[in-house]
Write a structure and sequence with these properties.
The chain is of the alpha/beta class. The chain is built from 10 helices and 10 strands. It binds adenosine-5'-triphosphate (ATP) and magnesium ion.
Amino acid sequence: MSSQPLLETQNLGRKFGQLQVLSGFDLTVEAGEILGLIGPNGAGKSTLLSVLGGSVAPSTGKIFFEGEDVTRKSAAWRARHGIATSYQIPRPFVDMTVLENVLVAASFAGALFGHQAQALAVSSLERAGLTAFSNDPASSLRLLDRKRLEVARALAANPRLLLLDEIAGGLTEAEVPVLVELVRSVAASGVTVIWIEHVVHALTAVATRLLCLTYGKILAEGDPQEVLDSPEVRSVYLGMAPDDENEFSAAAAKTKRARAQGTNA
Ligand SMILES: Nc1ncnc2c1ncn2[C@@H]1O[C@H](COP(=O)(O)OP(=O)(O)OP(=O)(O)O)[C@@H](O)[C@H]1O
Ligand SMILES: [Mg+2]
């Protein structure tokens, strides 16, 4: 394995007006990691992902991807060169079929045409478990499958880094594990993942490292269980609504049990 990290940020910062949303943010992500990102509302998680994906420009600092300075590269350029993003609210082209939606992504972000685009689209749908719906209109998909379509569209850009922003949002408890398995299999196929999620147990089921962000800075990072147990992180979550604390405590307990049983789920 090369010693060069897949992604590195140096002194990354972003201001919106007078609001310093990210500051002095140094992050290194190695190929093969599934980095979970947690933090209270407004902590700057989505801003960080947007800055990494290129849809928001940083006010300060630099971003290196595979050793190349991509700080000034557009989101479209980054999508074509290995960085793809999936968002919480799926935005499929509703008048197109499921396959056509992924074909558009393969053509534009994947920069492929003809048979090559078709082949990548078909394999992306297969990876996302959507082959059976290929010819259905995207508008007919239930929420879980629209989320999978969002991931399939990102996979059609052939990414080496996949950025996920709250893709489990709005799903039922029974549906969340389906998405967790999808992320696990995408990562197993060699894609590095950074995943923001409020559904903490979804993250801890697959994350190899957890990072907690508050006020645009790293509060704690490292082994998921140690981060969840850390007094700093607990105090941040104890300051939240009782439901969030319950979700948080349940995730911490579940991860602890899984570790005790020698599993990662
Ligand atoms: N385009 C923007 N213009 C002005 N302020 C913004 C913009 N985008 C984000 N902010 C502000 O930056 C702060 C961080 O927002 P961000 O969306 O990154 O937080 P988050 O950690 O993703 O929160 P959540 O958990 O609610 O999704 C918030 O105070 C938000 O209002
Ligand atoms: Mg957000």
